[in-house]
Amino acid sequence: MAGILFIISAPSGSGKSTLVNALRSQLGRLDFSVSWTTRQPRGSEQNGREYYFTTREEFERMIAAGEFLEHAEVFGNYYGTAQRSLDEATAAGHDLILDIDVQGAMQVMSKLPEAVTIFVMPPNPKVLKTRLRNRSRAEGEVNEDVLNRRLDAAKREIENYRRYRYILVNDVLERAVAQLEAVVAVERMRREGTPLDHRTKREFEIAESCRVVNSRERLRPFLESFGIDPGEDPQQPRLL
């Protein structure tokens, strides 16, 4: 049986990588797609671990050859997911996690509407800016203009949260990890037709509380902190 495709998106600095690493340490049969990029490695990043680093010319050759499931240009650099990541996970019967931005997620959703989509939010702009500043400082340079551009980009990404099936707020790491684990477990149960018992019922309740359709009031203070109206937007469809 082919596995489930999980798409996880979040603004840069939301702690998404930490969540994904914690999830994979707890659950088996869960492959991770390492993205390709034309940007330079940062800090201790290694080719093939955080990203496959390549040249702009090679990336554009791969685009022309149809080798990407999705790709996008962000802040002057290309990022993309190779189609072979999905092919290999499917052949092995494993689930696959795509850690991609909103632009790339929309491309995959249009091709694979059955994918399980999860959006991760930072708790507020102040926390997000602190995380971004600490990351920049660790890389040796803090540029306030770049930080403000990333905050603006974060707000634009968060405005798309209704397009996702689930939404988590990464304010307390342990809780966010538990919610993410519950979402994956419940989607697997649905795929496999597993009946609910005392344990699985609790996971189901946690996952359901994270569905976008059930989260408007819970999300209100977080959205308002970014200047986003949590009310319904009839122009923006949900993908459920």
UniProtKB/TrEMBL annotation:
Reactions the enzyme catalyzes: GMP + ATP = GDP + ADP
Positions of ATP binding: 10-17
PROSITE patterns: GUANYLATE_KINASE_1, GUANYLATE_KINASE_2
Role played: Essential for recycling GMP and indirectly, cGMP.
Gene3D superfamilies: Guanylate Kinase phosphate binding domain (3.30.63.10), P-loop containing nucleotide triphosphate hydrolases (3.40.50.300)
Principal subcellular localization: cytoplasm
Gene Ontology MF annotations: GMP kinase activity
Keywords: ATP-binding, Cytoplasm, Kinase, Nucleotide-binding, Transferase
UniProt-listed Pfam families: Guanylate_kin
NCBIfam families, per database record: guanyl_kin
Domain Guanylate kinase-like: 3-185
Enzyme class, spelled out: transferase
Family membership noted in the UniProt record: Belongs to the guanylate kinase family.
Source domain of life: Bacteria
Name under which the protein is recorded: Guanylate kinase
Subcellular location: Cytoplasm
The protein's Enzyme Commission number: 2.7.4.8
Keyword check for Nucleotide-binding: yes
UniProt source species: Acidicapsa dinghuensis
